[in-house]
């Protein structure tokens, strides 16, 4: 697919990352116990200094898996209580690593564009390569969070580490 | 599916995953902002920096970092240092590739003609100016450079690249794939470089050909356990022209073309595992073999084994502890003839080390204090202690101030202790000097050579002014003691053979120096798609000695002239679309005061590299690169230690094709 034709507003990198985050949520299954009722919202949270700007906010109000999507910009780890997906926007591991560890064991899909995110235990990392965005998955992190990712999505990942077979 | 703005709210959520992954973007790649939290003068040369600069070797890539002085001595040799004291075998810089030291104890420096890798596989080059000794070890006196290669999973698929130009041609191929529990890559590279010219325009003998193969395998064993194994093997001839000291020659030397053959291989393994509480442990070991053969002069085979362990505990009560242990054993066999004499022929050296560092949050998220120390025991000087203390204050998330005081040492090596070299023959000039004088460098009496020492004070400031502009400023003061210089050991008249005066000089730690300087780098994106990276460095060196020996005084004066006073660099990267790249790199290097025997002094120079790249298809990139465009030729360094002829860097260009599938 070529770059947008003249006159069209090109999608920014932030927009594309937000789109990827939305799609990850589409292809991942949370345990039923994570939702109070069939209409309970899917809470997408973001934490970190950088932020994807308005791009993630644009997802607020859309629908995924039959549920409304709510977007929350968290200023502190305590605000990540009810989140189903957390996007770490801070590139500094000093900042996101302790928060990632604190989420261990919870059914939260952890996503980031920071370097080495999935090596440190994050579930999905967005990486840049050859003029496009790609993503890589840590299957062990998904397993520990009791999340199931569709094989269709895993096939599109540039790399999958962790449990095989 | 068109990405046009529609009447209804357009959005990234409307695109399928496949479409998102296919969308080409002008990647506004971020400078790795883990740097924001570093209490040191750190600079990262990213993969994109390397690609856009058009460099074809690691030393050329290092020019992009402020505070690093790179001078090209010939097509195949460089003098690289940080913050002064440059030389072909600059010894105050520790250079690592994935944690493996590439410092050669034979000459106490890096043999850049034998160090290379597939540049497409370099993830980033971390440059830390200032003593990095606490974590990294001795000889990181003025800085540490760590060249980090990409993970195997980031280099999947096949890549073929080739280039041809006025001075060099190269070809490389790489294949990356999945294995049972991880990823791997294998690659091969070969290149050939034409010689450069000397000061009179005569072609030199510094042609260079080399072939290299390598592999890397990454795999995970269970949760939180990662392993990596990598290896390389290389070989190839290079050349030089030496003005070999010769009593029989009326001018005192005979220009001789020499051939230097180098080959070697290494194997490196690394394991990292994380415990349930979050303690990260890493164990790394490597085996390195190197063979250098300078015909009729010197042949060396060297085997090095190194093992290193580190543990990084999770933060407890605000303390972030990391500690490590290491051991290195290196043995060599040196055969010498001609102007060289290394005694003993066989030698081995041990190095044992331990370090500890605590990063304590005095005020969480705002003020940190980092205290560290490294203690080492080496075969030459015994115990050495290298402590440092750092602090970093982050008043707002976008800016930080840091300061550091540290002590580091440069330990003696085989070269300092055991080398005897015929340096020069000064023809007779009667009546004052009735006979020619042969000057020889002889080893110091055993145990007399001490480590060189430095104490450094640094302060720095970093700010992200807005999303598109950031700056990084460092200032430093260093005091050096026990710097090695040469002194007159003995003089005697030899009447057998060709009568001459034999003047023996040997090393002594008799020079002190003070340096002060400033380094600034800026990263600016004035409009989307255009990135400007100016940088500037200033370095003033003052060296002195209390010795009355004119040789020591001459060396002290030479230290002052070993680095330019100022250097600046301006890189521009313009990316009008995802298919085109237009890059310029303008750089200026100040004059070097040190002259060679013919009185040549290196003048200041300003030069320009330019690159244009197209992607007619996503998988194919074609580029044209011009280097050193502003002058037909210029000299960057006067050779030291070995009697090479001064050569010039010429204007050159190449075209390159890279295909990934």
How does this model look, in words?
The complex is a heterodimer of chains A (165) and B (661). With 165 residues, chain A is α/β, with parallel strands linked by helices. Helices cover 25% and strands 27% of the residues of chain A. Chain A contains five helices and ten strands; from the N terminus they run αββαβββαβββαβαβ. In chain A, the strands form two sheets. An eight-stranded mixed sheet of chain A has the order 3-4-2-5-6-7-8-10. A two-stranded antiparallel sheet of chain A has the order 1-9. In chain A, strand 7 and strand 8 form a beta hairpin. The N and C termini of chain A lie far apart (33 Å). By secondary structure, chain B is mainly β. Chains A and B meet through helix 1, helix 3, strand 7 and strand 8 of A and helix 1 of B.
Task: Give me some keywords for this one.
heterodimer, A: 165 residues, alpha/beta, eight-stranded mixed sheet, two-stranded antiparallel ribbon, 25% helix, disordered N terminus, B: 661 residues, mainly beta, five-stranded mixed sheet, 61% strand
